[in-house]
Amino acid sequence: MTQLNNVGIIKKANIYFNGKVTSRTVLFPDGTKKTLGIMLPGEYEFSTDLKEEMEIISGKLEYKLSGHDWVTIDGSGIFYVPANESFQLKVHTVADYCCSYLNE
């Protein structure tokens, strides 16, 4: 999906790691939400309450899910984070991403 239609957007940015990771929240009529953001090079760890689909639209990074090895995405790709888990990122170039929060 390259375009999001019929959505609401929260204007206030989500800012993490002293501004090195930022996003905006997109709300859908059915109550679901996504965040669209940018990550600057660096190392980060995030936790989640809901299952997440992390779509990397562009950039080069490595991610590590709990109990798994590091995986590289160079260009674009998708990975899933289970609910109530944390994950680590090593971002090598500016990364453009879309995070979908899944109620599964």
Automatic annotation (TrEMBL):
CDD domains: cupin_PpnP-like
Keyword presence, Glycosyltransferase: yes
Keywords assigned: Glycosyltransferase, Transferase
E.C. no: 2.4.2.1, 2.4.2.2
GO cellular component: cytosol
Reactions catalysed according to its record: cytidine + phosphate = cytosine + alpha-D-ribose 1-phosphate; a purine D-ribonucleoside + phosphate = a purine nucleobase + alpha-D-ribose 1-phosphate; xanthosine + phosphate = alpha-D-ribose 1-phosphate + xanthine; guanosine + phosphate = alpha-D-ribose 1-phosphate + guanine
Top-rank taxon: Bacteria
GO molecular function: guanosine phosphorylase activity; purine-nucleoside phosphorylase activity; thymidine phosphorylase activity; uridine phosphorylase activity
Matching SUPFAM superfamilies: RmlC-like cupins
Entry keyword annotation includes Cell division: no
Function of the protein: Catalyzes the phosphorolysis of diverse nucleosides, yielding D-ribose 1-phosphate and the respective free bases. Can use uridine, adenosine, guanosine, cytidine, thymidine, inosine and xanthosine as substrates. Also catalyzes the reverse reactions.
Similarity comment: family membership: Belongs to the nucleoside phosphorylase PpnP family.
Name of this protein: Pyrimidine/purine nucleoside phosphorylase
Native species: Domibacillus epiphyticus
Lineage: Bacteria, Bacillati, Bacillota, Bacilli, Bacillales
